[in-house]
User: Fold these one by one.
Assistant:
Number 1:
Amino acid sequence: MYPSNSSSTNIDDDNQSNEELNSMLAQCDEIDNQLIKMIESLSSNLDKFNKFDQMVEQLNQAETKLLNFSQKLDKLFSHHNLSLDLIDIEQNQIDNDDD
C-alpha cells in the first residue's frame, strides 16, 4: 500500500541492474581489448615466423648453389691435376727421347 516506496524500490532495482550491466559491459570491453592485443601479437609473431621460413628457404637455396659450385671446383681441380699429370708424362717422354 505504499506505492511510492514500491516505485522507489523498482527504480533502485533498475539502477542496480543498469550498474551491473554497465560493469559487465566494461569488463567485456576490457576482455575485447585484451583479445585484440593478443591477436595483433600473434599476427606479428606469425609474420616473423613467415620471414624466418623465407630466410631458411633462401639459406637452403644458397647452400645448394654452394654445393654445386664446390662440385664444379672439384671437377676443375681434378681436370687440372690430370692435365698436369699428362704434361709430366709428356715431359718424361721427351726427356727419355733426348737420352
Note: The chain has a mean pLDDT of 89.
Number 2:
Amino acid sequence: MPTDYKWLFCESDLAGIMLLVLDNKEVHSKELLRVSNGYDRIKKKASMLADAGLLSVFEVEKPHPATTYMLTDKGKEVAFLLKRIKSVLDGDREQNTLDEYCQTCDDSRPDRKLLKRGINRVVDSLVV
C-alpha cells in the first residue's frame, strides 16, 4: 500500500497545537495563538484535531463564551510520540518524553509495552 502523504499531520500547525495542549494539560482558545497567528484559522485546525478524536472540546456560554481544549487518551499517545520525534530532531536523545508517556498509561496492557518498544526502535533508527 503506498504512503499517504496528505494525512492529518501534514497540515500546518497541528503538531504545535498537540504539543501546546500536552504541555499545559488544557488550553483556552485564545492560547492557541501561541502556536500561530490567525485566530479563526488556528481554531479550525483545533477542530480538525477534535474531529480526528485527538482533542476534547469543552464550550461554556456563561458567564462568557469560552472554549477549552484537552487531549483525549488517543491524543495523549499521539502528542507524546510527536514530542519524542521533535526531541530527536532537536538532537535531544534523552528518554524523558517516553518515560513521561509510560507513566500515564497502564503498563500491564501488552499493547503499551509493544508501543514503548516500537517507539524506541523508531527513535534509534532515526539517529545516525
Note: The chain is about 50% helix and 10% strand.
